Amino acid sequence: MKRNKELFRRRFYVPKPDSKELGPLSPLPGKWVSKGGGWNMIALPFDDGPFDYRLLMNQYDETLEFSMVDDNVPNRGLPGVIDNSSEDDQFVVTLDYQQSISQQIADDFPKSGLAGNSGLAIHHEPGLWLYMKNLRTTDKDFLATKGAIDADLTVARLASIPHGNSVLALGTSSVEKGMPEIPPSSGLPIGRFEDISTPGYDVEEDLYLAPYKHFINNPFMGNVSTPGFPGFNPRDMNEILRFANKGVDIHRTTVLTVDTTRQNAGIHNIPFVARQADATSMKSTFWIQELNEKDKRGHTQRKLRMQYSQVVILDFFRSREDGHPGRARWPHISINTLEKVD
Prior knowledge:
Blueprint: H1 2-7, E1 30-45, E2 53-75, E3 90-109, E4 121-132, H2 137-145, E5 155-161, E6 165-177, H3 210-217, H4 239-244, E7 250-259, E8 266-269, H5 271-276, E9 278-294, E10 300-319, E11 327-340
Antiparallel strand pairs: 1-2, 1-11, 2-3, 3-4, 4-5, 5-6, 6-7, 6-8, 7-9, 9-10, 10-11
């Protein structure tokens, strides 16, 4: 009965933001803002033109707020299930987040007249970030016996999107000195197309890919006129993030990477979405950066900045031509650079 009594003696408390108890989520609590630093690309069905889709580009503003839910949310377990230990409970750090995005400027090809005006609300997302803080070696061994290949997953992101999508993405975290390299990210459709580095890539020859070729040859610049700005380009959609890091002194970076294709993760969609533009996977990487900046007296102060790159894969109408079943796959890519304001 001793263990049963202990169940009612758990102590719960809400730590302060940046508490070490939050682990890799410790930089997040607070308000993050971007004015025009966000960029989004999505292919949408469109029956008024030479193609059955249009390619839409947005430049956007974003507010992203994180608040504490609890440090010790208990997931109850039974002793001896994993090994002969006396305690198999898991305790989870939980942060609530609210994401709000509004459009600054947009362009599409072919032109539809549907791109929308400045200030248009284009995304709202409530959700949770989790840190499974007492994942033990025995947990990993247990997961390995069940065939899990991702037994080291310690963070998760849960999201609900008003289009009718429910998301659970699992992943890992790390802390890096300075800033790790942000890899290229192709925005081109998957399923009938080669690697863009291949000579004679279809985007140069296939008329069906003209909307992508249009924005490769004419990157979407939004309202930015900064010299050297590369624009938003399907050939490498993360290029803007790397450009934003030029000349920035980054002390260290917390990296959070989550993916719905991990075992036990996934996306569920309402029937209409599943039929028309099925969201089948989401992968996102967040780089939370501690910057070295000087105050008015010349003293070094740490400023927090966040960058992310997110790829949602949509499956719809165009049949694949690579020998695999199912519909062609269309990357829906969003990137942003935000600053913490409190």
